[in-house]
Structures are given as structure tokens and as C-alpha cells.
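Record format v2
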Amino acid sequence: MSVRESMKYDVVIVGGGPSGLTAAIRLKQLAADKGQEISVCLLEKGSEIGAHILSGAVLEPRTLNELIPDWKDKGAPLNTPAQKDQFLLLTETESIPLPTPPQMHNEGNYIISLGNFCRWLGQQAEELGVEIYPGFAAAEVLYHPDGSVKGVATGNVGTGKNGDQDGEPGIELWARQTVFAEGCRGSLTKTLFERFKLRNGADPQTYGIGIKELWEVKPELHQPGKITHTAGWPMDTATYGGSFLYHLENNQVVVGFVVGLDYQNPYLSPYEEFQRFKTHPAIRGVFEGGRRLSYGARAISEGGLQSIPKLTFPGGVLIGDTAGFLNVPKIKGTHTAMKSAMLAAEAIVEALATAQEGQAVEASAYTARFKQSWLYDELYRVRNIRPAFRWGLWPAMLYSALDTYLFRGKAPWTLHHKHADHECLKPKDECTPIAYPKPDGVLTFDRLSSVFISNTNHSEDQPAHLKLKDPSVPIKINLAQYDAPEQRYCPAGVYEIVGREEGAPRLQINAQNCVHCKTCDIKDPTQNINWVTPEGGGGPNYPNM
Amino acid sequence: MAILVIAEHDNQSLKAGTLNTVTAAGKVGGEVHLLVAGHNCGAVADAAKAVAGVAKVLVADSAQYAHGLAENLAALVVDLAKNYSHVLSPAGTSGKNFLPRVAALLDVAQISDIVAVESADTFVRPVYAGNVLATVQSVDSIKVITVRTTAFEAAALGGSANVDSIGAAAEAQLSSFISQELTKSDRPELGAAKVIVSGGRALGSEEQFKAIIEPLADKLGAAVGASRAAVDAGYAPNDYQVGQTGKVVAPQLYVAVGISGAIQHLAGMKDSKVIVAINKDEEAPIFQVADYGIVGDLFTVVPELIQALGNN
Amino acid sequence: MKVLVAVKRVVDYNVKVRVKADGTGVDIANVKMSMNPFDEIAVEEAVRLKEAGKVSEVVAVSLGVKQCEETLRTALAMGADRAIHVETDAELQPLAVAKLLKAVAEKEQPQLMILGKQAIDDDANQTGQMVAALLGWGQGTFASKVDLAAETVDVTREVDGGLETVKLRLPAVVTTDLRLNEPRYVKLPNIMAAKKKPLDKLTVEALGVDVTPRLKTLKVAEPAKRSAGIKVANAAELVAKLKNEAKVL
């Protein structure tokens, strides 16, 4: 393969989600204000901006108001104002309305498709002169001899199934500042954590997996703006999880389920929990006579303030959910991700202006700005809620009420996350298998029918992008001790144990099905699975998610 | 007004798709004329006049039509078409080649690949690779149509139409035939095969895939296909793959052996006329689309099937 | 020699289209759009002819909405020299497209025009043949090999049952089949460079073409789902059924 070409920018942004696009826009706005020229390039691994974006989503427009105050005139797709909030506690047959916690009030918010919102942000960024390149995955971090980040390289393409063919080499993108906006569990961010010891002093990050479907429902069942959240069934009280159900425009309803990845029972299947959740008597009615339009899944960072790593290092910064700015009790991470991006952009512009050419730039002011911002305050006030759930649903609800109402988020202690999610699985022998109902093909579905409507594909002519550090571990450890939990936590049917009957079990990896949720990278008990970027453009093609 | 059907042939025999196209023409309603344009194609004309429902056979016998060159054929059909309300051709590579040319020269739309006739001006045709059926109405005076032949029954034989010889049109002189190379494979090509035998991961190995699937395919004169799972497991080469990311096929008979029937596979073969499934898992989704299913171990069922076929 | 390549913006082949609830069309709001895969092959072939020194200029043309510019930029990134966009929001059916392409060809005077054999949305498989007819040119459809000489082009075509080779007098139209070539990966620097290549705009009015649709879509529907058939006990019974009932043996 020939040598890689290189291109130079002031700032390269990895990832075209809400934070990456916000950073791009803010950089260009500030440059224009100051009469400076800042060249900005944004790489997105999806086939287009929005293709890999999946979220609930209810958007709190706070950051958008700061970033683009005239977003209404510019046609931002915030079409459905939030109306009624409903919070239900489910038992197997009953639903009990609970008072909506203050963080979950949604007056002034909008139910949106985050994918479509990102498509719109992308247009705004391009109009400001940002160069956006979808279909190119940043596969490697590049370093200067002094150890600072030099930029990123896109992956090689067309190298064949075994990676041994002469393909097309990737491109090196050099930048004075590289912004990592990969979203939850970024594959490059993971390497930066190690290299710059960014997680020292921070709690382990904890995660959840969110699985979502988009439905078209009968017009008479559609109540635009309606927001329902549930806790309880089908989760047992030891497992953190809950649902969301939002009514958008055009008779569309989104339904989703989030399961904390600190769950313990290896037999648990988040996908099947979600499917069975839809059958609850208080829930199923809305889907009567409707049809499912789309499906997808994505991990989210749930650790909150305690788990946020060091945000800056020579040559680059972390923004958005790859750092972990999600507000769990609010069930929102978009406005926080965007705010972190604005703060980072402001610090970067300052740092670039003062740094000498050829000198490594660290936008350290980003951290200080964060600590002085409303974002820090917002995350500080809710920091104890998610960790309390390790005590189980009831104590956590009680504690949350105290923490919120009595201490107003200013309790003189901070609860910590003690374990990473992958350490939480118990051996199968200590757990009971869960018998999930069969899909009926009307309200509930199997995994592959679901992946089908996520429009997921990866070119066949490439090596699997799910790497096993040790190929013997899936059978020797995962199967033997945990009954191969990857078969169940993967929401896309990527992992299958085959050949059991012949007495020669092996792990079959159907990498083409991967919807890029990153759950395997997080939950694999020995961290043997490494998720790396496939060829750009691969993965889901979510419409309206 | 009458309907003109253009016969598909190789100067020796009438291609079967012509019979299905005559049926489609019959559904439009009107006298059906069949045009045989070729060279030394008397045998074809004889076969054509025996097609039930054909009122008249027109024969244009000239060297310029020997190889069905679109430019020459279109000129001939355009001259004739003015006397007809509809011009139909089978949607094979021949009809698809010359008929749009006819439509353009007549300044009318072509309605491609119809699968149903709703009325004389309204037709159903597949779009988006058959995932959507569109009902379209033509506002043109002459309807120019290609017909998906598998969607219509073949017309019966036993008719005795009159045969009229007609003159050739002026030769276009834009193109000339150089050569043709017909596929001489023992096994038909996957995309064009009338029968396909496909194997899945239950075959267990490349050797067993060959040992089980190939004899059955040979017996049926079938092409060999595979599910993605079988391809991914290395049991079959990439170009065997039937499904969403492989080939989309619609044979007369599709035999799925040890294929569970994930939707991604079904997307590639659900338009087959008859589907047979052999699988030991009674619950396998393939049975939900199969016309005939055998629940059993493929390693015993397939050899039995080969034997049963041999007895016929 | 100049080559004109027509490219169409269609729903990406990975996207499963869905009929709108009211049956008036398919829902393509916010779905991924791409260059028609057969047209990618057409662009690739034209660019290869240029790289082989047989062609001096490759001009890409697309007809339709504003976003067709993106499709043209892709063609430019693949190696086309310049682009022409006939911008319109009107529904364009193959006959109208052929007439517009004819008008463009009369302005540009190419010696060769390469198109995809069909678009993966309407699956019409007409435009190339129609534009050839309107221009009075020869056509080599469903090409799996294109051999270009100074005055003629030999086109090997994929036909039922095998391959056929025809010789066309230039100027001529070629439509591509899947096996003609494998389109290249578009490189990032080329995408960047493509932004600077010329992209000219034309209008339907300026070309003087009546694009009124000739076919009215009355409704669209999803095909009926297959239903489960019967289970048979053994191979002998299966063979009997296939023979006597299904009549496929």
C-alpha cells in the first residue's frame, strides 16, 4: 500500500453528533467575531450526518438558544413542544402514576429526532465554512515526537476480508487541535485515556444501553407532545432500567428502553426486556394497528460528574458523551454535550491565538470554564442519584427524593461508582436463566428483523471490526462462566455461539450486523472484545432516529 | 384497436416468455398480433401461429433482424405501432433493449416490467427492487409495455393464426453484431436459474456443503446458492450468497436446505414461485414463507430427495 | 473525445423503503440518498477511459432537485472534470429525462454517453435507450465490457443466456451492467478538490423541454406477504407435490 497523504487544518473534529457539530459551529462563530481564520474539518464515520445518531429524544433548548438564538428562523427541526409528562411505576400487570421528579419536567422542551436535528446542525456548520466529511472513520490517533496529539488518520479501505489485500490507504489529518467527539465509549478516546492517564482520579465510567424503535401509530392514538417514562417491570428491583415513550409529529411514536450495564445476571437480555416491556397492559395499546418503522441501539454514559475524566491533553480535548456529560436523572445528554462543546471551542480559540506555531496546544482553560459553567452546577446537583441505584430501586427512589428535595443536590457527600460495568456480571451458576416470551412479529420482534430496518450494512470486503484480544476467551471464559452473555447483550445479533451440538462450540461474529452501540466493548467480562472503526460509511443508516 | 406483441426468439424457436406476454395482452383486451422479426425464422413463425389467442402473426424476415439489433428492430416496430393501441414485449434483455427506443420514437412513456393489468391504461409494476408495487395509469395514446413474464401464465398452444409477411424497415446502420458467447456452464447462473438449491450454516462444513447441495442441484439442473451465514462460515464462496446483500433471485423453484430464514435471506428469495424448506428446526422462520416444508435432518432428507427425484 | 455521464440521486441501496400509510408514495423523508449504483459504474468507466488516454473530458450531468449537486460532487470526486446540473423540483420520468439529456448532449456534443442501465428506485431501465433513440445514436445496453476506438465502440452486453458483442458507430450511448467494473473508493483529498471543479446550472425552461409526466401513479403498496404453506412428511411426498400440485418439476 502506498504512503498516506496528509492534510492540515487548525482544528479537526472526530464525530458529527451534537457535540462535534456544536464545536464546529462555535469555532467558526468565534473566528468570525475575532476576524480570525480558523480552518475546521469534521469527520463522521456514518454514511451521512445523522446516519448513526440515535436518541430519545427530548431536547432542552438551553444550549441551542446560546449557540444559535435564531434557530426558529433557521428552520431547526424542533417541531413538537413537550406537553404532558407522565411517570409510571410498572408491576407485571399494574401501572402506578408517580409524581414526576423535578429533573424530569419538560416545560419548554421539544420532542425531536436527534438524527434530524444533527442533519440541520450539519447544514448550519457547512454554511459557516466547516468542511464535513461523512463516510470517513477516524481510525488512529497520530502523535508528534513530543507526545502531543498531531491529528488522526482515517482507516485503510478495500483491504479484503483478511486485511491482506492491497487497498486504498487512509489519509492523515493534521491539526493544531483535535477534538474528540466520538460519543459514548469512543474507540480513539479509549486509547487517549491510557496514553494520557486521563481517568486518574475519576470514578470508572458506567454505562447504559438504550434500545429504541420508531413507530407509526393510528391517528386516534396519537397525542403529539406526550411524554411517558416508566420504572419497574420488567426489570427486577436490583437492576437499573426504565423506558421512554414520546409522541412526535406525523403520528410517530418513539419507544425505548435503557438498561444499566452494571446488571449482574448474565442471562439478562436488554433486547428481550425491551420487547417484553412493550407488551405491558399500560403500554401496548398505543401500538395497536401501528407499524414499526425503524430500530436502533446505542450505549450512553451514566457515570455523571464523578466519572468525567481530565478533558484536555496536549493537542486535543474530549467533548460530549465520550467524556460523559449526560444528566441521568434528567434523561438528557444533548444540551450538556453541546454545552461542553461550546466551552471547549471557546478555550480552543483562546489557546490557538496565544500559542506559538509548532508548539503543542493544550486548551486547559476548557476545564476551568466547565467548572464555572451552569453545566457543572447542573451535573453536580444530580451527581448522587445514579450511584444510589446500586442499593436497588426502592432505597434509590427514597434517597433520590431526599437528595433532591431536602439537600437540593448539595448534600455534603458524593456517592462514588466503585466498579466498572464489566466487573459486575456474576457467574451463571449463581444466576437464574430468564425465560423470555417468543416474538409475535406484530408488537415484538426478533433481533434480525430489527437490524433489517436499521438499514445496517458493512462492506464485506473488510476484516471484522470487532477484535478479540484472545480468541480462546469467548469459549474458555465467556461461555464456560457466563454462558456467553454477548449473545444476549448485543442488540444486533452480532455474536452467536455455534457448533454447540457437535461439541465444538465457537463464537461466530456477524460483524455486518453491528449497529455501533459499543455495548460489547463495555460489558465483555474480561474486556477481550475491542470495538474499532470499520470502513467509513458502514453501520446503520437511521432515518428520523 | 389491436395489440402488438413482439415475439422473443433465436430464429429457431419461440422463447417461452412470449406465451406469457400473449396472456398479458389478452388481459388488456383486443385482438392480439404477434410480430416475429428475424432472419430465416420460418420455424418461429410456425410456432407463433399455434399460440392460442393470437389472431395474426406478422413476419419480417430480413438479415438486419438476425441478431435483434435494437436500432433496426425499433425502426420496424415504430412503423407498425401506429396501428395499435398497445405494444408489448417480454421484459427479457431483448425487450428491455429495443422497446424503450420504440417508446421514445413514438414520444410515449414505456411502462416497464408489469406484473398485473388493471385496465387498458392502468398497470401494476414493481419498483424499489420489488419491495413496492406501483399502480400506474398511462395518458399516452399508445401504451408501450414490457411484461414480467413470471407474473402471467403461459398462453396455451393449439391456435392457428394467419401469417402475413411484412417488409423490413430501412436499416439504421448505427450498429452491427460481432459475436455472441452463450454460457456453457453445466450449472445455470444464479441470477437466471429456474431452479436454485441453497444451503445454510446447518451444512456444517465446506465439504458437506459440496457433498449434499451439489448432487441435489445436479439432479434438478439447478444453480447453487447459499445463505450469508454459510458464506461467512466459509462453506460457500461469496458469489453464491442470496439475500439482502447478495443476489436477489426469483426462480420457479427455490429449495432452502438448512437455512433458518432470517429476513435478510428472505429479502433475496421471497419472490420465488415455489419455495421448499428443509430444516430440522420446526420453528425456523423459513417455514413461514415455504410452500412445502420438511422438518427433518438435512443429511438424511436430501439424499432421500435425490433418490425420489431419480425415481421420476 | 468527450464523454457525458448521467447520474441520478436515489435512495441509498442499504435503506429499506417504506410505503406511506396513505399509499400515495414511499416515505423518503430524511433517508440516506446516494448516487445510483449503476451510475457509479458509469462514472468509473468514463474516468477509466480518460485515464487510459482514450477520452479527454468527462462531463457529469444530473437532473432534479438542488441536492443533486451532492451527487455531482461525488462524480467529480471520482474523477469527472466538470458537472452540469439541470435543477428542477418537477417529477421527471424517463422520457423527460431522455429529452433533457438530449438537449444537454446537443450543447455539449459528446462522442459517447454512458448511463446506468437502470435506477434502483423506479427500476425503469429506459433512459439510455430513449436518449439514444432521440439522438439517432446507436446503443450498447447492459455493458460488461467497453472497447473504445476512434470512430467506433465495441460493447459486450449481458444478455439472457450469455454475452453478446456489438459494434456501434460513434457517437453512441452505453448503459452499464454490474460487472463492467468496480467503482473506486473516493479519496478525501479528491472530495475536497471536487468542491473546486466547475458545476454549471441549467434549467428545464432554458433547454425548452416539456417534462409533463406521462404516467400517473395512482397508488403504491407493499407486495402481499407470503404465507406459510404445508409440511410434508417425506421426500417422496415432496416430489409428488412439486410435480402434480406446484407443477415445477
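The longest helix of chain A spans residues 334-354.
Chain A has a mean pLDDT of 95.
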